[in-house]
Fold these 4 entries.
Entry 1:
Amino acid sequence: MSSWNQNNSNEDVRSNKDAEKRVFAMLLYTRAFTLDQFIRCLPVETDVKVARRRWVLLQAMPPRLPADRSFDSGHDIFVTLFQSLRNADTDAMLSFINTTLSNLLLNGRISFLCRTVSRHLTLP
């Protein structure tokens, strides 16, 4: 039998779960915020295929912020936003994610990205 998990207390496990929840919230917040800003900047007449390609390119080759900013060393926008959330409240991030994605789904603003995701994504 494996002894890998035998010495962990309930407090250690709870601490790990809290850390996992926090990092996942930070990652989701970063993507939800960027998606929301991306959609706000898209001209209404943008073709669906063009919008999809732009969103994929934004994620695959994100713009880098100038290295001369005091808070950044030339990281891409996702890294910079993620790092800025270090002191953010986890519940506030989860609330923002829920509200933002719900609004995008209700307004039909992200249906162009993936209809399958929008059909199967259920938010509380």
Entry 2:
Amino acid sequence: MNEVHPKTVLMKDARLPWPTDFPYDHLAARLAGAGAAAIGPESTAAEVMATLFALQETGTPTAVDRDAWDALRHIDQRLTIDFYLYEVPAPDVTTLIDDLGCQEPPVVVPDFHRLAVVPVDWTAVDVPEAFDPNQRVDTPAPAGDAAISLDLRPSSGDWLDLLGVDHE
């Protein structure tokens, strides 16, 4: 009987206490900084052995690099490290993309009046006498088929009233 098993990955608990940097995390970060392929729980013993050589290409590996590498290259220590990893189903990329496409973006519009109440003295606002708030300002049509009209008049609804701000 041939059963199909879903692909799984091993993940570390983010709150896992470890006396130093977690060996996989430390070496993955160092290798990424060196432009080399990272290693992880799915890496073979040969890939782990080659890690130190990849680090040597960028200079002398540190003592922390060596400790992390030693912890992963010795089978008994690596099995202890791997024991603390959770086996979880690997995410299906197409399902994730479909799920993300159906989500509404999380947009929170704060109550600006509660954030900063700034009283406005409307009698102190200096407006030129020639200003006509009902005047429509048209911009020249752009090149091409689209014509854009820009209306710079105040909107018909006062936004302060919409926000519930007493401005009189």
Entry 3:
Amino acid sequence: MYLDIESVKEAAERLGSFHPFFGITFLVCKKGDIPVGKSIPFPINAAEETFLRAHYKPDVGSNFFYQPFRTSSRSGRWLSPKYPYSGSQTNRTRGDLSLAFIHEKGTDQWGWARGYVGALRAKLETDKSGPIPAFWLAVWLYRDKNWSEGTAPKDVVKHFFRDFSITSEESHSLFATETPRFTPFLSEESFSDRKLLQFIGSAPDAEPDEGGTLKLLRLRGVGPCDPLEFEPADRLSIITGDNGLGKTFLLESAWWGLTGQWAERMAYPNRDEGKKPASISFQIAGPSSEGKVTAISFDYETQRWPAPKGRPTIPGLIIYARVDGSFAVWDPVRHTTMQGGEGNPALLFSNRDVLIGLEGKIEGLLRDWTRWQHSEPVVFETFKSVLRKLSPPDMLPLTPGEPTRMPNEARPIPTLEHNYGTVPFTNESAGVKRVVTLAYLIVWAWNEHKVYSSIAGKQPQTRVVILIDEMEAHLHPKWQRVILPALVDVTSILSSEIQPQMIIATHSPLVLASVETIFSDTTDKLFHLELRDETRRVSFRQIPFVPYGRIDRWLTSDLFELRQARSQEAEKAIEDARKIMESPGPQKEEIRMASHALVRSALPPNDEFWARWTYFAEKNGVEL
């Protein structure tokens, strides 16, 4: 049994007001068994270094130590490798704590002064920190110890006192021995400092964590919704809202937060804000770190958003499908290999670039499709599998045929097999082109990432971020009803280890209805942008995902805000008729006029409202 991560986190917080001396030097001297009233040779610097390596080094790859105690250092709680020979030595030889020792300057002779307990107690009182919480200090020190089942908090304290030979006087004068009363604090899962690093942050010399996803995006003084705070879900985030309220802007800002590059036009602060501070903040969480919030303020002098200086977390592979048919791709391996060199790790492709290529960047769908089909069977099989997964219902699966030559084309053109025959890709419908192009970019980006990773001697990332604006663009309602669940499954075709984060903007009730069977409150979120009537300001909020079942009920939900799933004319005619039905003394003439309005609105004879209206009219002496 091991201490659970939440207990260790709490220990780090509980120890935050205490001087580091009590968690390091004091315990090192107790382990070294230095005497009271005289000194002995004791290499205290080396002993502290060994102790710090054993208990205060959550990142074994770093040269720094982490201590959870009080600090005034600019580096925070991460201690320099020289700490035992500098900062700690200063604490031992100067000020109040030096009174606890017998030590001749310039020697390795150390011992406890008579009355050292009183001197240490006085330091705790001066700091107003109170006695040291023995249980929480023990939790920190023994966070990776395997405890026997049934261990209680008091057993942890006893083990700590015994291990460090804490005397009765020390126990009563320096420590708080009370133990907390809470549910079991032990777990069968082995403790890992990797999880602790997600809480305390990375060491100053740590390599950037790779494979991150967007944890937070915060916009101030920029965009239609001001302020805006967006905390995407781990797997699927769906963004809805009327035209012009900022769905695309949110995706563009998310892309910038992840990559540090604008996909096209840079965002500018809102004009009505004058020169008030405008900022974009983002947080990228990695496999071993929650990441830190980075805030970038707009520089009015240069009229630019300054590039973030260093990224504690590098995101995973990012694919952004924009509504105009262009794409943007960001590869973390390109980012790391270009550090200090020339070039932009973000690849921005127009619709034409994706189709026919961009020199030095991408060969293009027409060339790659034909090449994969004839000489790279593994990649081509992946491409075919992705096409099958994304295929529309009521049609043959999207299946590549043999390339063909077309008039005025100097290259073979890929084809697709349909129920009615073989169609060159360049002659396909807009909907088929959009989905096939998306499939191509996903397979191409993943394949390029694997190639670059192999060259760099790295393993491919397991996190992929996919941003898609207007998921439903050009798609028939039947296709809209299946495309998003299919897309969620697509990454498993690339690799079973991939964990996708998808951020999707949509206007379609069919897309919302399509995820009713796969939406999970633990991995997915639904967000809505709306214009508040009372303030005329745009608001952004997460809303509960409620399965409405029928598409017309999605249309009349708060997301799409239609009063009725009918034509605008029929809606008005019905609303006017209802007012008459609710009036205390309806007149026959107004009932007849309302009936004519219902007919003129093309309300079909089988509409359910007719039954109620006919009964009401006849009850009031009007025959229809």
Entry 4:
Amino acid sequence: MSNRKKLRIAAATVAVGGLALAGGALATSASAATAAPAATTPANGAAGYNFFTLNNAKDTTFNQLLGINNKGEIAGYFGSGAAGHPNKGYLLTPPDGQANYASENFPGSVQTQVTGINDKGDTVGFWSSMNNASMINDNHGFYKLHGGGFHTADFPTGTPAKPPVDQLLGINNSDVAVGFWTDAADNSHGYELNIGTGKYSSVTDPGAPGTSLTAAAINNNGDVAGIYTNPATGATDGFLKAHGQFTDLAVPGAVMTQALGVNDHDEVVGTYQTGTLEGARLHGFTWTPAGGFTTIEDPNVGPSGFPGVNNGETTVNGVNDEGVLVGFYLDANGITNGFLAAPRPASFQVPLTAMPQGTVTFGRSSQSDTVDLTVSVTGLTPGSSHAVTLVNGAGGVITQFTTLTANSAGVAQETLESGYKFSIGGWRVLIHNGNAGDPVSAEPIAETSPYVAGVNAYQLTPVEVDASGVNHGTPQGQATVTYDPAAQSIFVTVNASGLTPGAHAAHIHLGSCQSQGPVEYMLMDFTANSAGQIVNQTQTVTGVSTPLPATGWYLNLHQGDSASILSNGQPTINFRPLLCGNG
């Protein structure tokens, strides 16, 4: 068994991706493949990941990690496949304690590679009864359901290569596996195997069904990634077959591109080659439908020019839905090392703005010549009612307007009437916390500056006044929201001031501060000290399998604690947003 199968490119033979791609002349034919979005030069992705070298202590000279599921379980093997150095399969459950490597080898085999694993722990791979010096060995696909035994799975064909080459390379949660077999003319044929029904079906380029093709990976949507001979150019390219469309994947300027893994977001990973002969180098990549290609280079990769090998080699073989990558690289000593690359946590700096926000405009009723007030406000408690008063410089109430009512998104846009005759004075407008007449309802939550003759439109300034009448000023703050895919957690760190001392409930909601929506993630309460400050406090949400979107969410700190902001599932007066920041 070779380092999977070998693919001859120009005059060089390059073993890549742990995928033994059979060499020889590659046929060409017409195709209806769709070209992937062009990229001028792939961006270097090393800065966006934390890299970890993972080698089985049974052989630290040659490891390749080939597949990873959404639990972080990894499929791989050690041993180069050279005579006396056979491939031996294993599963790895991070963290990288050596006790976490579990051998998985087909019974009675001489060599085994475990190439794919789904979220149920079902695995696929291939095995050989040989370990020849030529590294030309028989290959037979296998699958193993979690807790069950091994099963050989070779595509039923009457024209196999001699020795036969058949490999299963990926499996999804529906137990549909993909792989390839090689015919007597050394052409690869991709296929799917439905393990539940035992049915085999071919995977082809729909525009050129006879083209040499390898199905290397399948996601839970049934989308397949792999390698084929581009019939238009004769080059070895990657492909993604998804949603009824066959997309060609070729890194611009590359001699060869191979797609080796795909996740449920259709993020494709693999390797591409630049240069030929002694100048050949392999680089890992990720590709997304929206972002195109990004180069992935393990930072420990060796310098070019190592004797007898194509140097500077990084290959990405697998990717899970959190974007965690596995593969292998060649170091400066010529050792092939397994690696895991975890996306660095994505952080959002979120300025926290005091609520509510809006304007009021003084007017005069055309019927009674009394003061009215047009109010446009966001950031109120959804569905809440608020007293609105006109007060003098000493804070005495001059008049009360009709009630201000917020809609289900915390927005109010109304014209409020009063019985007060319009006259010049230094009054200002207060919006109160509620409309019930109790001390908490009477607390001002926003105010205007004093009225100046001739100026009718005023911005509201939020204020925080507690039930005892102590004014804590206008709240302000800053939050850092970080998603760590490796920990599947969101970390929220808050610094704030101008709050009533004590606990304040906090949530990440869908929507925006201007149009509030449902709670997406609940946080533990943040606690303001006796000075009304929250100082570098962090709360964590665990079990988060997908990152926060770039937009469409907001962070809210509330007036009350988590025990007081709801009653029978509805917001109470203590729900009032104090600080809010849009993601």
